[in-house]
Amino acid sequence: MSRLLVLLGNSGSVMSLLCAIHCALTPIILTLFPTIAGSWFESEAIEIGVMIASFLLGGGILLNSYRTHKSLLPFFMLFSGFALFFVQHTLLHSHGLPGVIINLVAASILILAQVKNKRLMQSPCACTYPHRT
After folding, report:
1. 63: nearest Cα among 132, 117, 107, 130
2. 41 or 48, greater pLDDT
């Protein structure tokens, strides 16, 4: 079971990194290659699907880790990052540099949530069971 959790944890970090790259490159690619505009790369359905998958994966990982380290900070970071994404994609619809900055900040918060969770799992604490190295 622990190998599966490590794999899921790494998958969550990779998803957050891919999200940050996607959010940073989408405006640049659409500006440089107008023929891509309107294609799958800018699809709202793909963006929502990736956000939902990332949220479920990240939330599941953090929920399982919470049972060990009992810290809510990674949850607050995860929800803050997704709240920024939600505001950006539903309320602001900001394009150009402001949208890129908001998306990069949100993706960075998600990455930091995963990093914080990983550090909490590796730190010595009053856990219900000893950590394996």
Report:
1. 117
2. 48
Q: Tell me what pLDDT residue 132 has.
A: 52
CA 84 to centroid of chain Cα atoms: 11
Tell me the pTM.
0.65
Would you put residue 14 in left (φ > 0), alpha (ψ -120 to 50) or beta? alpha
Terminal CA-to-CA distance of the chain, rounded, Å? 15
Using pLDDT thresholds of 50, 70 and 90, give the confidence band for residue 126.
very low
- Tens of pLDDT along 27-39? 666 666 655 555 5
Pairwise CA distance, residues 44 & 1, whole Å: 35
CB burial of residue 3 (10 Å; 0-12, 13-18, 19+): exposed
Which of the 8 DSSP states describes residue 70?
-
Q: Tokens 């000893």 sit at which residue?
A: 130
